[in-house]
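MODEL INPUT / OUTPUT PAIR
PAIR INDEX: 1
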Amino acid sequence: MEEKLIPEVEGMKNEALVPETIETETTETVVADVQNNEEEPAEVAPEVNEPEAAEKTVPQSKVEVVARLKELVQNGGEVERAELEGLKQVYYRLHNAEAAAAREEYIAAGGDPEAFMPAPDPLEADFKAQMSLLREIRAKAFEAAEKEKQDNLEKKLAIIEKMKEMAVSPDEADKNYEAFKGLQAEWKEIKNVPAEKVTELWKSYQLYVEQFYDQLRLNHEMRAYDFKKNLEIKTRLCEAAEKLAELEDVISAFHQLQNLHQEYRETGPVVKELREELWTRFKNASTAVNKRHQAHFEAIKAQEEENLVKKTQLCEQVEALAAAEQKGFADWEKATQEVLELQAQWKTIGFTSKKTNAKIFERFRAACDNFFQSKTEYFKNTRETLNANLAAKTALCEKAEALKDSTDWNATSAALVALQKEWKATGPVAHKVSEAIWTRFNAACNYFFEQKNAATASVRETEEANLEKKNAIIEKLAALAETPVTAETMQQVKALQAEWNEVGHVPFRKKEKMYKRYREVLDKLYKEAHAGAGRRHMENFKKNVGEKGGNELTRERNKLMTAYEAKKQEIKNYETNLTFFNSKSKKGNSLLGDLEKKVERLKEDLVMLAEKIAAVDEQIKADSKN
């Protein structure tokens, strides 16, 4: 513990040697100068509690924490308490984070949350051992420092007693001047004493120094030389203090200032006419350094408070998601992505104050744990339902496969149609088996109807007539596609679609080609209609955005960004699925085409969201200029 700076009075250092004989007519003048040798006490720079680890590199792993502790032990335990506490917090934050991650993995694998037991930490014993060694080393160092202070106190008290004896008379002062200067030098060499004794000790020392010099009969020339030398020293100290105000490292400047204060106090007086001016200059330079030092930590405190506000908002958002009712897999997936995004934002925000940092983290972690626990319970509860649906759909597949080779076309057709309706009424199954079970059922149905179409060649004439009708409808739609798409146009399109649906079957071998032409022209019409609607929608959106401002714009942008990221993820999922898609049937190729069209529509939606985000950014920028 550093010894606090105590205000001192000028006059403690008078290095001019007093000759054995001094002219009688100068004695009164010299003694008067010594008696008036008092200056203002040096300003004590305020102590500021520096936040822990303000200039330390924070370890990023438990191994680094233990390595740092070992390094401190090897260096003799010389470490600030703030750094030691910071290392402890980092270690247990990482330790708890690993346990939380293991618990989430255990739960995600289907484990019982109540039965979870974290694995032993292999580094914890080493960590605790190094911490214990450091505490022992620091305790011994503290005891040694306290003993040294007590010894120093005894030494300084002995010096004061000797000075007291030397200051009893002018003769004693003259005779013991060199010895007295030696005591002053010895006093300077003795450093820390118990803090509660500093002021009293200094006052006693000051008293007998003044009494001693009051007894001295210094000649004017030697006194002037002493004043001149002290002036040079204190001028240099003023210049050094003024340069500290320009030093970029405010912490280093503050500590260097303390050394300058110590040297200023230990330097003797200057001529009376310059004392006030010189002291004011030094005090003003010290004030500038202290203000920068204080402002530095006020800025850190302000940043910590801002970080607390941001982290509190993230806690509230996760808590809201944990409390919200999710109605299905899509809702849970969307909410999960939002929680993960909030966790990523959390990592970008710095620390809060020491007294709130652990508390706000516990709140955020608890909110995340509540959300994922609710998600786990939901999926656990729906697992039985999914399994039951899978069993029901498997039974439907077996029935369809039993009927696919039947030649009783009408009865079997009705039976398969009934099975298809029953299939639609059956709830969903797990995503990983959904495609396989549907492919199995659809293949059985398609096989029967393909066989039926091949066997009912007698209806080909009717089918050819129907083909001509549908081709005529396609031509009408193609003609509409060449004109501007209006609301009236779309009414005509819907009428032609209804007419199309009323027309019966066409020849099976021409069905896919004809239907492809039909879909292409419809896609073109609806794409134009969608584009027009999109342009109108974008115009309305920009108009609505122009009427908003402030937090409304910020919330609107956050909502759009969330939708944008969700749409990107959906496109990525579809594109990944398409890479694994393998189809050998015409039905399968049609399904592949539909998926590709869906991806294109999603990409168009993504472009629309990007335009909306740009519109919001432009409005925010316009508002900031206003």
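PAIR INDEX: 2
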Amino acid sequence: MRRGWKIALAVAPVLLVIGTIAVIRAEPIAKKILITSLSDKFKSNVQISSLHIVPGPVFYVTADSIVFTKRDSQGLPPLIKIKRISVEISLANLFHRPVHIAHVRVTGLEIHIPPRNRPQGVSQLADSQQPVAASPPPKQPKAAYPKFIVDEVDAPGAFLVMLPRKAGKLPLEFPIEQLKMSGVGVDQPAHYHAVLTNPKPVGQITADGEFGPWDADVPAATPISGVYSFGHVDMGTIRGLGGTLSSNGQFNGQLDNIHATGHTDTPDFQLRIAGNPMDLQTDFDAFIDGSSGDVHLDKVKALLGESIFNVTGEIVGTPGIQGRTINLSTVAAGARLQDFLRLAVPEDHPLMTGVISLHSNVKIPPGEEDISRKLILDGAFDVGGAHFTEKKIQSKVDTLSRKGSGNPKDFDMGNVLSNMRGKFHLEKGVMRFSNLTFSVPSANVSLAGTYILQSGAMDFHGTLRLQAKLSQTTTGFKSLMLKPFDSFFSKKGAGTQVPIKISGTRNHPSFGLDFHNGRK
């Protein structure tokens, strides 16, 4: 027995040396096999700086500085760059078909997805410089390497870049904090779990789904699908907005063409210019161009407070300009006026209540300027059954209706309802109204002018038309004194028509006659 131990102890160093030499000699062979296999599967030129193998019941393999370059991607960054791959594989699994690799850790993963159409001026020039061969070289037979399936891939700090299709546009970059995949094989889809931070508005996105199989000819056409959640989104990172958004939904398609549907909820959404938090919810259906990051909103149904409105439009980039432009078309029918006023006007209680229908084109250019300054609106609105919540203002409206009817002392009329309609254009914080009409029973006001969002300053000029004659708007001695002027102020079928102006601020409006403007 002792002699057996002595022989074993003597032979062990020899076996260790032989094993080490075998591994050292096997490393170049394994490296060559790996390069050839990956080049085949990804249709790319593959470079590996170094490869090391530690044998045992579980093999540990490390490869450093791996670079995949697509063969037809002149002038573009490498398709894939990896600082290091660490592989764990049991000896028993080497004899399974397909070969199962237990665990792979990928460090420093960068993926650059080229657009489907190569950039103009690059591919044509490169092609023109290629020599024309008389006949293609004969194809070499491909080695039959075994298929691999990786049970688990861990790639923290991965970086996905979608290269733009149009010249001048910036690449779309996705820093992925956590990326875990399972069942990874070149010829089959893999399951993934990803966590990344959206830069603006700031929030964390978690996605789970399937990726692949990898399209070696057109990487941008690689299928992707899944479900996502977007939580604790700080809308305050966009100047002029406030609130905390959450969203969840699903998506499917290809890397450069994704269809997404989902729901968003912002219980405290606000425009900072007003500072009134409102519950805003949306259900959306959108298409995302992965090569540019442009988003096309096919259908959005939004609920603001208790008001429903519909939105379509796009969020697109412009070559040479940082950021994206939002272009939307908004339509509301039978919504609550007070919901929109509360969102836009800095008052604890809305000035008016009523039913509003509107359509508006919305444009928000890129830039760091406050949204209230860069927001551009064009549209028209129609308000029915409006009632002023401020008693002093409603009292003046009631008085206007009584005088317009020729019964200035008829206090039984009670609170009257108003109707408003008009067109508007908002730019640089100034709202300009045209064809603005305000009507109550027996009276009608036509106005045009401006309203400044920040200060609430107003400057309107127009015409007041009453059903009654001027002398009928009052009683007693004043009525007698005004009778000679009835014919002078009676115009175009109206009992009375006078020029008026409205100035002051939203909190302290001033109403008066505007004879100077009327003589122009």
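PAIR 2 NOTE: The two ends are 125 Å apart (CA to CA).
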